[in-house]
Amino acid sequence: MHYLTACLLFKDSAWYLDEWIRFHLKVGFDHLYLYDNDSSDDYESVIRPFVRRGKVTLHNWPGVGQQMNVFQNCLDTYRGSARWIAFIDDDEFLFPAEKDNLQEILPEYEQHAGLAVCWLLFGSNGHRTRPAGFVTENYLRRANWIDNHVKCIVDPSKVTAPKVAAHAFHCIGDARIVDENHCAITGPFSEKPSASVVCINHYLVKSYEEMCQRRQRLQVEGRAPLHSIAQWEIFDRDYNTAEDLRIQRFTRAMKQRPFFARLNPLSFLRQNGGR
Predict the structure, then answer these.
(1) 23/38 Cα distance (integer angstroms)
(2) Which of 98, 9, 20 lies closest to 58, judged by CA?
């Protein structure tokens, strides 16, 4: 049984997957369940080295609006082989606020159905075009508040189905998902947002170029974008007001060449603009 795993539904995210996979393996994930949703880019060449090493299981899952179906499939398929499953997106990076490994933290929550982690919303950091290097090293500024939206790390033996995408799940009996302070959460929001134990850096804007590319396509549920690019530019002003460098200790460690070479030596060049 894997102790800590993650479920990711992605589409046309090849540029970001290498960093996303490496980062989460670095902070304590044992295995990652990835579901491709009709990608047109070369995601397989990025993922293949991790599949070969037994770190990633890749599923192909076509169709529009498949997020809830994918999450249900992941729960049903891996209920007996994963102690924890985190449901996060390819622009979200989950890590311990102070500890070195998430597996040092999760035993404190094993009596619960899951741990809900609050968003930290990161902006463009002033980038107009996509910069070379890691997402986690290029975007250092976020909103000066902790968002009340949560993402969940669940015990699949204590939940039956997703309730609000990855933000809330149906629990079995009197089991409850709690926040980092052990307060029960029944929906997608935390009444008292905090990020002193576990963080999710949500890089939902990135550069202006990437924001336009991403916000002009359908949402994962198959709906049209909720906000215009102009509205996103307004959001971005608020998402650049506070510097948060807590993730950088993992990024620095991940950029060490030996770590790259163990998995895929070509990635170091690709992620660092050819250097």
Answers:
(1) 24
(2) 9
CA–CA separation, 16 vs 112, rounded Å? 32
Q: 218: pLDDT confidence band, cut at 50, 70 and 90?
A: low
Asked if residue 51 lies in contact with residue 57, where contact means CB atoms within 8 angstroms, the answer is yes
How many Å separate Cα 3 from the centre of its chain? 17
Q: Are 12 and 91 in contact (CB under 8 A)?
A: no
77-80, Cβ contacts within 8 angstroms, sequence gap of 24 or more: 77/33, 78/5, 78/33, 78/156, 79/156, 79/157, 80/1
**pTM of the predicted protein model:** 0.91
At 222-237, the pLDDT tens digits run: 666 778 889 999 999 9
Instruction: Retrieve residue 180's tokens.
Output: 């980092």
Rounded CA separation 252/244 (Å): 15
Q: What are phi and psi of 70, to 5 degrees?
A: -65, -45
**CA distances (Å), 121 to each of 48, 54, 93, 100, in order?**
30, 32, 11, 22
Two tokens, residue 56: 């990633």
